[in-house]
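Saturday, quiet lab. Running sequence design on the structure tokens for the scaffold JK sent over.
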């Protein structure tokens, strides 16, 4: 464990820093407190993130803000139909001397300092690209130029375009299962917030907004050790684990707990429920949620708060219902929470 973690007087000190991160990001991305909390949970649980949201709702601003506050490098990849795996590792161009030059690509150019990799519109990239990203997410390393490149502090955040379906590729369930959470970013509903975003010149200059944030408020090199400390110190009781287990069973057979959705055959709806990895991530996220709320134990509210974000994208539906996933998945997870009794 790092010296910084050993010297911390308690987890309360680190919690204060984590909440300060949220406060600073909230000044840059207004009206999105729940989104910011969920990303913060993923950061401290060391889990990768899927984002869904319309164009221009602040996804890149959100991630650049977190990268600055964590003090690590930020890289961005644009998903396109012609993107190939090698494009993540290197790119070629003609140098001033007229000879070909090979430079590191966005995945390896920052080396071990890479803190956040943002893959915009990942569903426009081919499955071969997803496969390479899957290794980087699972092992935090790739092989290139006859050696392994490691990213021990890497957090991958990917955005899926939910409106345009042309020239897109569905992601395999194995790829989706590597993401801890899927977070929806919608426009704020408050009129005053929307007026500020529209009319306040401060929000028209993203670089200026980010310059207001203190760099390296929470050093990214310490997060792995801190995450391990949170998981070991925040207690989940046997009763709470039984509750999570019942939720898990209900993701596979929602009809067995009496969950119903209008116009849907609940016996045919789910082909596969959440994976063991997914449920372990649920508990990891719930422990961080409890810690951020100042508790040393996981409560049912912590599990419920992260349940939809952790579980919904892991469910596999019958083909008849798959096209309505965006509508059905959150309704199903909420129905499960309503039908499984909390301790």
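Result came back. Writing it out in full:
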């Amino acid at each position: 464990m790092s010296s910084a973690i050993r010297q911390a007087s308690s987890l309360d000190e680190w919690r204060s820093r984590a909440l300060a991160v949220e406060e600073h990001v909230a000044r840059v991305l207004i009206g999105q407190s729940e989104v910011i909390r969920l990303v913060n949970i993923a950061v401290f649980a060391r889990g990768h993130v899927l984002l869904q949201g319309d164009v221009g709702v602040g996804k890149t601003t959100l991630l650049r803000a977190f990268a600055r506050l964590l003090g690590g490098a930020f890289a961005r990849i644009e998903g396109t139909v012609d993107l190939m795996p090698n494009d993540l590792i290197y790119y070629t161009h003609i140098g001033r001397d007229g000879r070909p030059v090979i430079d590191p690509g966005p995945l390896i150019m920052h080396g071990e300092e890479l803190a956040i990799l943002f893959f915009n519109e990942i569903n426009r990239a081919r499955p071969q690209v997803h496969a390479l990203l899957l290794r980087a997410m699972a092992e935090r390393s790739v092989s290139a130029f006859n050696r392994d490149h490691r990213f021990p502090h890497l957090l991958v955040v990917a955005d899926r375009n939910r409106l345009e379906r042309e020239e897109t590729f569905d992601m395999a369930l194995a790829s989706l299962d590597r993401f801890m959470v899927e977070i929806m970013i919608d426009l704020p509903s408050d009129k005053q917030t929307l007026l500020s975003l529209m009319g306040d010149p401060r929000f028209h200059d993203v670089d200026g907004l980010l310059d207001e944030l203190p760099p390296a408020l929470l050093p990214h090199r310490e997060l792995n050790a801190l995450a391990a400390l949170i998981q070991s110190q925040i207690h989940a009781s046997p009763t709470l684990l039984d509750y999570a287990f019942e939720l898990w069973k209900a993701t596979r057979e929602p009809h067995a707990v009496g969950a119903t959705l209008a116009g849907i055959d609940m016996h045919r709806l789910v082909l596969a429920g959440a994976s063991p990895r997914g449920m372990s991530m649920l508990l990891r996220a719930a422990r961080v949620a409890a810690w951020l709320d100042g508790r040393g134990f996981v409560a049912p509210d912590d599990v419920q708060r992260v349940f939809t974000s952790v579980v919904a994208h892991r469910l596999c539906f019958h083909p008849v219902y798959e096209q309505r996933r965006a509508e059905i998945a959150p309704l199903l997870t909420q129905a499960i929470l309503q039908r499984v009794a909390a301790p």
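Notes for JK: The CA atoms of residues 47 and 180 lie 5 Å apart. The radius of gyration is 21 Å. Ask whether to fix the surface positions before the next round.
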